[in-house]
Amino acid sequence: MTGVAFALAGICLIATLMLLSLYVGWAKQRMVDTPNERSAHVVATPTGGGIIFLSVWVVMIAAAALVIPYQATAALALGPAAAALMWLGWLDDRTPLPTSLRFAVQFGCAGLFLLLWPWPELPPGWFAPLFVVALLYLVYSANITNFMDGIDGIVALQMLAFVAGALLILPPTILSLSILLLGAALLAFFLFNRPPAKLFMGDSGSAPLGLLAAAITLAVAASNWRFGLALLLLQGVFLCDSAVTLLRRALRRQNVTQAHSEHAYQHAKRRWGHARVSYALFAVTLLVQIPVAYAVAWLHLPFWVSAIDFALLAIVALLFRAGTPRTD
To answer: Cα dihedral sign for 259, 229, 122, 177?
Structure first.
């Protein structure tokens, strides 16, 4: 990282803090999340903060592309897709949109990233199946991150851990500055979202963050599959909780796209509260997932250890009753 990169990160952090301070006052009067039967919070709280920190991030990666020419590739591929999904989430935060429209835009944003990123040449016959798998992964990641955004600080902390892990594990790439700037914007937002939250990110923040995590993972995996696997490990907490929850709901023939409060973290929150659960999961990613991911990426551990890691996370999700109806 150069001095210019850290200067841009500092500007991103300060600009996000300033704009969020203004936004909270506005949102208290115009955009408040009122608790309902599925809510984990009990106090009406301003929402939609994702529109601020992601807007700053998009502007900053565009500025970085002007200052550092080789950053244009990342800005062009990541910025438009994230911005479009951010605005969809903003509209959905204000007035719920039809599920069909949300999925259509999500697939469109995922496809836009896949078309704009400079992928290496593939062997004949591989393009179509890999494109479909990548498309589904991008949309799945956007949705599960949205589903997991149910208690104070959980998504912000997991994404900060993802950023920290990516910067620690990956060698310098054209994505490094975009990841650093995302971390700066997220850190500013977390100061408002930490338990007890003064501001929620809403769909305008959670779904684009899920798309970005998956997009970065795919872009890295295209160059080095071990580094891509490492980034997937950094998403293990969300991937395993959501997978176990959705599988159990599907086995009970329930609508897996319907909002609910049956994730493992939600069951845990009802026993231990927002702060303990969010910080505990952050510690798992920071102290377990990052070291395992680093060891797998840099050949200190065989790649199949990743399967054991995911299996253990899934078992923990089962122990915390992921996918079972709430009894309170």
So the answer is: positive
User: Under a CB-based contact definition with an 8 Å cutoff, are residues 20 and 49 in contact?
Assistant: yes
Indicate the pTM of the whole model.
Answer: 0.95
The average pLDDT across 103-125 equals 93
Cβ burial 60-82 (10 Å sphere, 16+ → b, else e): bbebbbeebeebebbbbbbbebb
Q: Span 272-296, mean pLDDT?
A: 96
Q: Which of 53, 40, 66, 5 is nearest to 208 (CA)?
A: 53
CA distance 201 to 193: 8
CA-to-CA distance for 74 and 299, rounded, in angstroms? 27
How many residues comprise the chain?
328
Is 70 exceeded by the pLDDT of residue 42? no
Find the DSSP H helices in the chain: 3-30, 50-67, 72-94, 99-116, 127-148, 154-169, 176-193, 203-223, 225-234, 236-251, 264-272, 274-284, 290-297, 305-319
Question: What are the tens digits of pLDDT across the range 289-299?
Answer: 999 999 999 99
Contact 162, 289 (CB under 8 A): no
Of residues 99 and 1, which shows the higher confidence score?
99
How far apart are alpha carbons 261 and 270 in whole angstroms?
A: 10
What's the pLDDT score for residue 232? 98
DSSP state of 153: T
Give the domain ranges of the chain. Answer: 3-319
Predicted local confidence at residue 39, as pLDDT: 56
- Residues 6 or more apart whose CB falls under 8 angstroms from that of 106 comprise 85, 88, 138, 139, 142, 143, 207, 211
Find all residues with CB under 8 Å of 306, minimum gap 6, and list them. Answer: 229, 232, 233, 292, 296
pLDDT, residue 289, reads 98
How far apart, in whole angstroms, are the C-alpha atoms of residue 106 and residue 139? 6
Distance CA 142, CA 131 (A): 17
What phi and psi values does residue 33 have, to the nearest 5 degrees?
-90, 110
